Amino acid sequence: MEWRLANSSLSLLSPRIFGIVNVTPDSFSDGGLLASVDDARRQIDRLIEEGADVIDVGGESTRPQGAVPVDAEEELRRVMPVVIAAAADHPGVPISVDTVKARVAEEALAAGAAIINDVSGFRLDPRMGSVCATACAGVVLMHSRGDVADMGTFAHANYGDDPVGEIVAELRQAMDRALRAGVARERIVLDPGIGFAKRGETSVAVLHDLGRVAAVGQPVLVGVSRKRFIGEITGVAVPARRVDGSVGANVAALATGARLFRVHDVRQHRHALDVAWTILNTRS
């Protein structure tokens, strides 16, 4: 019930929220909104005030259409000033960095980050596991297929009769990669990668059967916020207007086994998840 991070830990006795800070020009929902470090600092202040437990900083988009990989130098230019500022402004709040690059992870961890959120599940950079193990970082291993340019598309969304079983098997492979690299089990969180190499019906199936992911034995994080499948269900085309659907999906995920939630809209999720958690854990 506790997730060990670099130099700290996070209790999982209640729902925990990752507040999203995208310092990218091209993210699917909020790209380009944070044009300066001061913009990012104000965003972080607001997310923490609204109830975020972790700040998740990302410098490379994996949007569904037209994602363009960036090199390590550009990603560091975007991410590092924000990590340094967040660590100075909020020393008690864990910082997560969303990256697939070991060099970015290494420098971010040295600057005060506590978590590496790797959307490739340690597939794309062979050094990532050893970097995280050396720093004793908390890690999020997300299920995906393909590379940064196409993992958010349907290019690899091909499954057999049991897509959830395939996803669980591939998450186990990611966990094995981390354990072999020396990452301790108590530092690993699994993310089924909603919307990544998954059509809408597959994302819904994963959320319905999230207990199969939780049965692997690690805490589960979900990232459904403003995703395409929510728009397909609700008919809301604009990602930023999918807040209500996102809250519904996350409350359902809480009931089926998730304990960590990566979201854009923290206040609404803080209230909804806390109320749902209280109801789900009240004894008759």
Mean pLDDT score, rounded?
94
- As a percent range, the share of strand residues is 15-25%
Write down the overall geometry: globular
Number of domains: 1
Sheet having the most strands: 8 strands, parallel
CATH homolog superfamily: Dihydropteroate synthase-like
Classify the fold: give the CATH topology.
Answer: TIM Barrel
Strand order of the largest sheet: 8-7-6-5-4-3-10-9
Contiguous runs where pLDDT drops below 50 for at least 5 residues: 26-31
Look at the helices and sheets and give the structural class: alpha/beta
Kindly, what is the distance between the CA atoms of the first and last residues, rounded to a whole number of angstroms?
Answer: 24 Å
Roughly how many Å is the radius of gyration?
17 Å
**Helix-strand pattern:** EEEHEHEHEHEHEHHEHHEH
How many DSSP helices? 10
Give the helix level as a range of percent.
Answer: 40-55%
CATH architecture: Alpha-Beta Barrel
Number of strands: 10
Which CATH top level class fits?
A: Alpha Beta
Which helices and strands occur, and which strands form pairs?
Elements: E1 2-5, E2 8-11, E3 16-22, H1 37-50, E4 54-58, H2 72-89, E5 95-98, H3 102-110, E6 115-118, H4 128-135, E7 138-142, H5 163-181, E8 188-191, H6 200-208, H7 210-214, E9 221-222, H8 228-234, H9 243-256, E10 260-263, H10 266-280
Parallel strand pairs: 3-4, 3-10, 4-5, 5-6, 6-7, 7-8, 9-10
Antiparallel strand pairs: 1-2
